[in-house]
Each structure stands twice: as structure tokens, then as C-alpha cells.
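ok trying again, last paste got cut off:
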Amino acid sequence: MRRRIGLLAGALPALALWWSGVTYGQDAATTDASAKPAPETIAQADIPSRADADERFARDVIQRSTGRDPTGKLEPRLDALGKSVREQSQLFKRDELKLLSVRRLESLERHWRFFGKQLQAWRRDLQQATGQYAEDAAELARRRALWEATRTAAETTTIAPALGSRIDFVAAQLALAEQAISGPIEKQIKLGRRASAVGENIEAGQRAVAAAIAYIDSRLMQLDAPPIWELWRDQQGSDSALLSMQAGLAVERQFMDEYSAANVNAHRLFRAFQLALLPLLVWLSFRSRKLASDDPEIQASTRVLRRPISSWLVLALLATLVFKPDAPILVHEVALLLALVPVLRLLPPAVYAVLGPWPYVATGLYLLERLSFLVVANAFYHRAYLLFLTLLTLALLVWLLWRSRPAGDGAPRSTRDKVLRVVGYLGIATMTVSALANVFGNVSLAEMLTAGLIDSGYVGLVLFAGVTVLSSVSSLLLARRAASRFSIVTQHAGPLLRGFTKLLRLAAFAGWVVITLNEFRVLRPIADALRTILNHPLNLGQVSLTLGGVLLFG
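nice, full thing came through this time. structure:
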């Protein structure tokens, strides 16, 4: 008896180990089975209703696939865009781009950016028109997989023959719908590939123009032409320069046509806005004649708005620069030229009291600088005209500084007068360097310095005139009797007007700084440096931030 008990006691641990192993194997098998869930199937009771719904869905997909082609209007647009891009690519070779002026290159850069925006808009329209096909394809695949799983499950169970036939029929309908939708999806894929090819050409054009601009900027400190006395001996016209100018103007006209055609609705809205300004300014002009006020700001506003046509022209042309920053540069140049006379008529007397005849001088120099295209075909005439313009600007700056010299009465000069004299001396130094660079053969530097000084001076006057008109309009609108019904206007009209004027002046000054930096060819490197700094990653443990992201969040 004791021997049996001992054998039983010795067998119990082995039995326990065996049972635990069996249990573990079952648990593992159960775990593996749960890790791979069985495919979803449709219950037999739901097969008729689900079959009807999926059959209707399959018919709808087939009807959409065989109906009107939503890409019918998109394909011609892509063809036209691709043709324009190819023509633009073949118009200038890489070496020929280096012969163009920086102004024409910047316009070409805008043109390529315009192509890029057109391609992005086309891709959005393609996604909107054909996105339903991709959704239908995904939904068809999901439903067909569900019916196939249901059919597989039905083979292992007992199911009514009618239900089995219904399953096969719906699966076949879904397969037919997938076959029908494959045609539009294949066409969508082909259009996407063609769009990618157009995008590659656009990127190549952008890189070529950027390389040409970088090449011209790199020559600012190099002698890129013979001295002017050598050109005196050989005054032959430059056919390449003339052809480049003609090709550049042709590109500008093409860009203007394409830009206008692509923004028809925006142009109509903009023209309506410009036309609506005219009756408002005329009404304010008549009202200002009846307004009697001792406020000097109201009097200054009245004096400005008594010239409603000039005020309208300045605002309408300035709006072209502000609201159409991506327009062809030729449009901006024409707007600035049309603003010559209105700007001089609208500058307040205080400006002439401080600057003297400088507004007239700056306007005349800007007009002369724009006429330089008439002699661009002859290298010597172009250099001589540029030298004449530089020396004329230099002489006028010296005369203005001599004219504004202290009277000798010992009266201290204001900070404003000191700043203006410093600016005048900087202008004299700039024109001196430009003249020497032109004489000895650094034409790129001479053109940049002369055009930069003249353009920045005139653009500053245009922006000041625009701010003057806007502040005058705001002042007279706040002075309306009807506005006195609002307590906030009655109590805070003065601070509101001063704050609004300061904001306008700050925005105008910021715009003038950007334009001036671009004229002197330093905006691009400054923007690249700022972009590098703002996008530089800051790793704090497992968190990666950028300075630009932090500033944007702030």
C-alpha cells in the first residue's frame, strides 16, 4: 500500500507538468487564432437587403463611369499649359538668359511661378473631378471582398440555393463595376503623368532663371564689359541685345495675355473696385468744399481731395501694385509711369518745404531712366546714356545739398534735416561709384546703383502720396455728421485716425524697404539667410522645433 502511494506521489508532478503543457498549448493556439480574426461575412438574414444595396451601388458606379467624361475640359487646359511651357522653355537658352536684364529675368520668374500656380489649380480641379473614381474603386474592393468571404463561408455551411445564386450575382456585378471604372482611373493616371512632365519643365525653367539671376548678381563686383573708351572706337549695334529686348517684350505681352485670361473674374472685381473709388472721391471732394474746420488735419485732407481725379489715379494705380503682386512687371511699370503727374499734384506742401524741388527731380529722373530702353541695342549709346543719367543725378544731388546748406545764422539743424543730408551724401557716394564702374567696365554694378537709387526715390514718393490720399479719405469719413451717432467715433476719432495713419505709414515704409532692398540686389540673399535661420531645427531631447515654427505659434 505504501509502495502504491509513493508511486502515485511521484507521478503527480509529472502529470501536473503534462497538463500545464497541454493547457499552454491550447492557450497559445487560442491566442494565435485571435491574432488573425476571421474575415467579416454577411449574415444570411441580411443577404437580400445588402445585395439590393450593393447592386444599386454597382449600377451607379457603372453609370458614372460610362457617363460624361469629367476630364473633358481639363485635358485641353493641360494641353494649352504644356504648349505654353514648352514655348517658354525653347524661347531662351541658359546662356541667352544671362543677356537679359534683371528686371526681365524677374518678370520671367513671375511667369514661371504663374505656370506653377496654373498647374496646381489644374491638379486641384482634376482631383475634384475624378476623386469620386478612387473612392468608388476603394468601396467596390471592400464590398466585393465582403461578398467573396461570405461565399467562402457559405461553402462550409448549409445555405439556400437562392441565396447562393444571389451572392454570385452581386459579386459579378461588383466585378463588372470595377472593370468599368478602370477606364476613367487609367485616364486619370495618364493625365497625372502628363501633368508631372509639365511640372518638371516648370521647375527646370525656374531653376534656369534663378541661375541667371544669381550669375548677374555674382558679376556685380567684376568687370563684365570693356572700358567705355574702347567702345568709343567700335560703335556697332548689338543685334543680340536688340533681339533679346524684342524677345523679352514678346514674352511680357504673352504673359499679360495669359495672366488676364487666367484671372478674368478677379480682374472684373478689381476693375469694379477701381471704378467704385471714383464716385466716392468725387463725393468727398464736393463735401470737403462745404466742410469748415479749424483742425489742420481736416484742412490738409480737404486740400488733397479737392483733386479727386489725381487721388483716384494714385489709389487705383497703387492698388495694382498691392493687390496684384504677381502680375507681369510691365503692368507695374506702366502703373508707376501713369502716376507721375498725380503724385506731384498730391504731395502736401510740407513735403516740398522739406525736400525742396526733389520730388520734381526724382520724377524726371525716373522718366529718363525708363527711356533707357531706346538705346539698349547699341552698347556704347547705352553706356553713354547711363553715364549721362548717373552724372545728372550726381549733379542734382550736389545742387540740392548746396541749396539746403545752413544759412549761417547759428540756428541748430533739426534731426530730420541731418538725416536728409546724410541720405544726400550717401546718394552722392552711390552715384560716384556708379559712374566710375560704368567708365571702367563694371556695367552690372553701374546699372544696379543708378536704377536702384532713382527707382527707390520715386517709389517712396508714390507710396507717400498713396498714404496721404488714404489718410485724407479716412479723415473726412470720420468727420461726417452721421458718424457722430457712434460714440466710439465721437470720443476716439482723433486717436483712431492717428493710429490708422501710423499703420498706413508703417506698411508703406515696409513695402519701400522691400522694394529698395530688391533694387540693390540684397533682398534675395537676405531672404535666403532668414529662411535658413527660421528653418534650422532645434532639437530639445525628443522634440524637434524650428525658430519659424515657434514664431508662427507665437
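cool. The two ends are 89 Å apart (CA to CA). The chain is about 80% helix and 0% strand.
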